[in-house]
Amino acid sequence: MNDRRKSLQSVQRPAALLGTPPTRLPPAPLVRSGSSLSPLLDRVSSPEELKTLSVEQLPQLAREIRDEIVRVCSVGGLHLASSLGATDLIVALHYVLNSPHDKILFDVGHQAYAHKILTGRRGQMSTIKKEGGLSGFTRVSESPHDVSTVGHASTSLASALGTALARDALGQSYKVAAVIGDGALTGGMALAALNTIGDKQPNMLVVLNDNEMSISENVGAMSRFMRGLQVQKWFQEGEGASKKALSSFSKPLADMLSRVKSSTRHFFDPASINPFAAMGLRYVGPVDGHDVIEMAWLMERLLDLEGPTILHVATRKGKGLDFAEADPIKWHGPAQFDPVTHEFAAAKSSYSWSNAFGDAVTELARLDQRLFVITPAMREGSGLVEYSKVHPSRYLDVGIAEEVAVTAAAGMSLQGLRPVVAIYSTFLQRAYDQVLHDVAIEHLPVIFAIDRAGVVGADGATHNGVFDLSFLRSIPGLSIGLPRDAAELRGMLKGALERGGPVAIRYPRGNTPRAEVGTWPELAWGSWERLKPGGEVVVLAAGKALEYAEAALRDVPGVGLVNARFVKPLDGAMLREVALSARALVTVEDNTVVGGFGAAILEALSALGLSTPVRVLGVPDEFQEHATVERVHALSGMDAQAIRTVLAELGVAVPIEL
């Protein structure tokens, strides 16, 4: 029997269930990596080494890991609050399970920093999201301990289901545990997976990390249900009795008692039927998600039971830092801060594209009572905090359910509203069918405000929004605009509202000059703008790519430049004009070159019977890894330097080096 099992068996049952508090050690001071201030963590660089500790040492280890996470995240831009909140449950999971033989799956993965530290990556934590460094999420190619590559929410249960069924089909014996937050549980994919898990009954543990948050506060009926469970005294007493029984009986008898308890609860209080139990899953909880000893004790026993079990743990996002617990939204992915004083580094004043969108729709909703904004759990990220306060009756957050956001918008439009779906490009991928089937077939007036379109940088392959131009272009009747600045964004929003039909307006991550309040530039729909006249070579660019084109041509006479601000429809008249007068065209886009803007130009020229040569610059047909936005664009061959190189290859007299 190994040391870990001896240690766990010495704890007859959690102190919280005995009515006496567990042993508490004094808080650990702020840890400096590799210093004597982290005596336990310095001894643990693998799950095997973790198991040499006694269970009574786990709370101290968790505190040291949290301090290490604070130190690493102070450099800025990393996922702080969520990782702090999940530290204790991750320590318990790795103490009980034998990774990588046993499989631990995380939803999204941004809460898994403690998992990375415990699986040999502590020395690389400072490289997270940097070029050549660790991913901000779990990544199969990064470590054998990472069971899935995931940056989108609500996926862990389906992946864990597949993992468990594969185990059974192959006659293997490893254990499977999935960690999912209550925010991710708002996603239809997670609920559908629960339905199948309840049907197939694989042996697996689902740890429901209930912190009342995704990035924004959680919304919806499931969130209210979770809150209700945590405050019912009868429920807590019943769960305590069931867990006590688990320590006294054999597995078959404990399983039978769990089912009897569930039936009895339903008999006495039919209105309290637990939807997890109704789906066929054993349910235990809620328990304190920061009592690592209790969780390890429970996990040890629950993992030995037959069938699927949900362990509902209540946690605090930002655990261990008072200010992060008080404002978990602010500290979800904070900018650089001092790990001792917790003060933010001085930030430059900036105005983001998200701010520009939020300001525009807040103002536009005053002018048009039909406007209604929908978001899938991205109020803060999409710049909608002010809008949600000013127009609460015309605002809907559907949680992490992108498909619901789009189809709800379709329903609204059929009843006379003009809905705007505010969504990140990478998440719109999940609702392609709804855009095509529910909106476009009937040419419904739904506006898609697509934030983070193009390369996003540090979040990498799972979050780069470089496919929306391609998959949206394939949908008949859907129009696509790429504003060059906040003013054009305002003009496109107002024009889309008046025009009708499905419209997508995409804009990048980053900043843009402020637009004057009350201004709504008139844009002829589908029109381009000639920024630099004539030339034997003409560059066609839009959105973020236009910045690179302007920089490349700043000191290059004789090369034309066009702001191709509409990708669908194209400005056919201007395209024909420049194609007839130029000996070559260069297209630049912050999108994959497969099926994107450049492909649209080639298709249009073919339809016109023109054979003007076209050089297509954009993101190559491969997934782009994490690095700065500028670095990814440079590696993709679509930045200002790349444009000048292509111009030189076309015979333009241009200094290649900027």
Lay out the secondary structure:
Elements: H1 3-10, H2 15-18, H3 47-50, H4 58-73, H5 81-96, E1 103-106, H6 113-121, H7 156-169, E2 176-181, H8 188-200, E3 204-210, H9 221-231, H10 233-246, H11 251-268, H12 275-278, E4 282-288, H13 292-302, E5 308-314, H14 322-326, H15 353-367, E6 371-375, H16 385-390, E7 395-397, H17 402-414, E8 418-424, H18 425-428, H19 432-440, E9 447-451, H20 468-473, E10 479-481, H21 486-499, E11 503-506, E12 529-532, E13 537-541, H22 544-553, E14 559-563, E15 566-568, H23 572-581, E16 584-592, H24 597-608, E17 614-619, H25 629-636, H26 640-649
Parallel strand pairs: 1-2, 2-3, 3-5, 4-5, 6-7, 6-8, 8-9, 9-11, 10-11, 13-14, 13-16, 16-17
Antiparallel strand pairs: 10-15, 12-14
Helix pairs in contact: 4-5, 5-6, 5-13, 7-8, 10-11, 15-21, 17-19, 22-26, 23-24
Structure characterization notes:
The protein is an alpha/beta fold and 658 residues long. It has 3 domains: 3-326, 3-Layer(aba) Sandwich (Rossmann fold), CATH 3.40.50.970; 353-506, Rossmann fold; 529-649, 3-Layer(aba) Sandwich (Rossmann fold). The chain is built from 26 helices and 17 strands. The chain has a 7-stranded mixed beta sheet with strand order 7-6-8-9-11-10-15, sandwiched between helices. A 5-stranded parallel beta sheet has the order 1-2-3-5-4, sandwiched between helices. The longest helix is centred in the middle third of the chain and has 18 residues, at 251-268. The protein is globular.
